[in-house]
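User: structure tokens for this one?
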Amino acid sequence: MPTCVAAQDATPGEPRAADPPAAAASEPAADDGPPRPKAPELEKPRPAEVPDDAALVAAGARVGEVRFQRLNLFDTRLPEEDRLLFRWANKLHLLTRESVVASHLLFRPGEPYDPRLLRESERILRSESYFRDAHIRPVALHDGIVDLEVVTQDVWTLNPGVSLGRSGGKNSSGFSLEDANLLGLGKELGFSFKSEVDRTSKTLSYHDNHVLDSWWDLQGQYSDNSDGHVHELIVKRPFYALDTPWTAGAQVRDEERVDSVYDRGDVIRQLDVRDRALSAFGGWSAGLQDGWVTRWTAGLSLEEHRATLAVPPNDPVPPGTERKLVYPWIGFELVQDAFSEVRNQDQIGKTEDVSLGWHIKGKLGYSLPGLGADRRATVFAGNASVGHALTPRQTLLLAGSAVGYVEDGALQNTLVKAESRYYLKQSARRTFFMGLSAQRGVRLDDGQQVLLGGDNGLRGYPLRYQSGDGRWLFTTEQRVFTNWYPFRLFNVGGAVFYDMGRTWGQGAVPDSSHKLLKDVGFGLRLGNSRTSLGNVIHIDVAFPLDGDSSIKKAQFVVEVKESF
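Assistant:
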């Protein structure tokens, strides 16, 4: 009877005879881009005696033993990583437990061998912040049974730290203590204190997306903020894989905050806002059929919104905005099974899983006074994305979304977005990027603005410098990925960039400036490959080419983003 077994946990430093020389695996070929600091176990091909996938499927092979190799943070077989600090880190780190790795797999011993499920399981594992990489391969074939090996490499997940940032001429700071893989169980527990432009916040959060090694997801957040609070609880079983037959869940959220209305980077008024939301849903799917997945969901949601102008104590409060929507809804989702593994696109030296197929998702509901709402309204939300590999070196990604509601035949609080991203891989070390995005707001709630400035793409200008009904932004970058790997902790890249954009329409500020704004600049990119933060640190100097005399001649920008 096929069984799951654990291979020796490869806390790197104890190579087996079958392993290729570690040094050879660490040396990039000519023009191979940033060093791929992978352990050899993550790049091993299947043994020569194991047939290819087509032959295994044609022979009706079934899954036998599933062996697990869990690699530690640093590969101490490499001379450059065989250091006291790295050895200590390996000893202090608790490896992700085997049961946690197994809970992410879409196959079980005894089931028919399906190479698609191996690739999808790899993507699921790589999506976790506590895994640096994952690789699954057949390792043996006997009597129609194929044994598999699952290799994962952990990252450091206990992250105490102080964060400092600057964008749009404003500083931000924070302190956090979080563990994205608590005791190796795959649970995330965190506490943070942040001082940002809008508020100071203290947040306690918890996330477990495999409750009791199942596919149930539990998320909770409690934030005590200088301008209010956020309390949220989510319980759901998502469509976690292409063949998942059903989903269900519920969510409750309560938030109080102060929204600021900006013009030319200055606050011109503030609103006290209270939002509450409740929802429950269920859904079903026939799974993957001919390369496509169709999913249906249905649910019931409540949304309450109240906003009043913030005034000094004892001053009369003017009438504000109140809205209560209660609506049943139905949702539809279409997913194309077309994924590609790339490197040096939006990350540095990491495997990226990019969708090159269609993904369409929509929701339509109707709010009824008979259910407790204060108005009749048609509520909608939708998004679509598609990727195209134009040539082996060129990729185009397109995306769009719309969310809002219709009342008395008119759009209300509606926001429409569109984005295109173009990548030209000039070599393993150089990528040319162009991005064009646009937003359009229709009768947005007061306090909700379409903004453009240093904190959302126009790097040479103050944050939230322009406002209006809509905006567009064009960015082009020449990206460089170096072989520099300081302290074996950061992959280093760089960029030279040009930004151009403007807002249009009246929006919340009647006399806002809408002139075309441009900037140029350059900067460093530090790819964090050893911790669960998994972000890219941006250190930029941007020079505005337009704007009024109050704008500084250069903006120094330090940000932490999810991508290049």
